Amino acid sequence: MEVSPGEEHLTFMQWAEGAGIKIKGITPARFPGRRLGMKATRTIKNNEIMLTVPVNLMLTIDSIPSSFTSQFPSGTSIHGILAAFLTHGDPALLKDVDPWRKVWPSFDEFEDSMPVLWPEHLRVSNSSYGASSSSSQRKVLLPPSISGDWNSFSKEPVGVDYDTRYQNLLSQQEKRLKDAWAHVVTVYPETEWKTFAYYWCIINSRSFYYVSPGKDEPEDWNDAIGMVPFADYFNHVDDAACDVTFDGKKYTFRATRRYEKGEEIFMSYGSHSNDFLLVEYGFSLPTNPSDTIYLDDIIFQDLTIAQKKELAAQGIFGNYTLPLPHPDPPSTPSNIHSAATLEYLSRRDWRNYVSGRPCHGVDEQKSNRIIRDWVEKYVSECVVTEGIIEGMLDSKDQDQEDGNGDGDGGKVGSRAWEREKLRMLLERWGQIRRLCEGVIEGLE
Description:
This is Ribosomal N-lysine methyltransferase. The protein is α+β, with helices and mostly antiparallel strands. The chain has 4 domains: 7-58 and 228-281, Beta-clip-like (Beta Complex); 66-226, no CATH class; 294-362, no CATH class; 367-443. Helix content is 42%, strand content 10%. Strands 1-4-9-8 form a 4-stranded antiparallel sheet, with no helix packed on it. A 4-stranded mixed sheet has the order 2-3-10-7. It has a two-stranded antiparallel ribbon with strand order 5-6. The mean pLDDT is 93.
């Protein structure tokens, strides 16, 4: 027997169709053990359009009255203004989208799933916001791509400014949220933090690509956003058989294979690592072809200032990823191989090597040995952090045996809830360790 997604979801679907959204062969549905998603109500053919959403039904910076948007100081993010509108906008305008708002996740769901809202001791990072305990006392539980910190060694100053948008994920997200909040309270000082943070998370986790007509992309790529009603039911997989296009007038979702009745239909949010998915959307995948980790902090420890400057001069500084990438063209060395050969080649030979010219002295075994040493340092971090988390779990399990559990059924912030988060983090560290071990095996 099929389980209804709930009356509010059926009401929203009727609202969407009445407003002009074209829905063909799909419906929101509940899937056991997971969130709501989209499923086929009949056979869907390859190349069939399943959903069309006109731009005039989207929530964008252009759909908000200029009398509202013009209130905010220069530098206020589009993301922040959208969240402010949902918090303080004209009640009559917001009432028009009530059926949509009623199917959004609750704040408790965001507190449960998004590290930015977790208790401080679970989200230790290099963020400048809210850190109250000394760094020597803080144990890092989140992976380095999220936290920007390590348990097994101390980071060294990089000395070079470079794009780390997929690293230091939590501190970047916290800065975006807190900066947006600071701008909004200059206009609406009575704004309640929890309400604003809730709508900020709604927009952060449910938006699609959007840039105002005739304008360049915003300086911050996080501001190229708009919300697309009904399309936000689609869950993510990396290789989804769903083609998503936006032509400035409408979003179109087209099947790229045949779907049978009852199948879940996914879309791809992009090629993202599990760390990125956890921070931005509050979930990770058991299998993720795009999963990636970074060796930057480990590699930089081995390099002199002169070597770092050389990498920067060649445009190959930082973002050293695992799994090892496949260069294109194959004759071009990857960034991580370029960093490894810098350890032993003469400067002249190294410059020839990274530019694809003939050179002397490149030793694949020596390069692999250097890279393997770097990866083994990451494995050591996995072992140390897994031990920390296992120790915390043992302590909490002992509390439960001693009758110190809070018996609240796993509410956010409870001991049962924290055990669940710790187990999830332990599983993530296991994924990272296995990724590293696979790379090491391939280098031998």
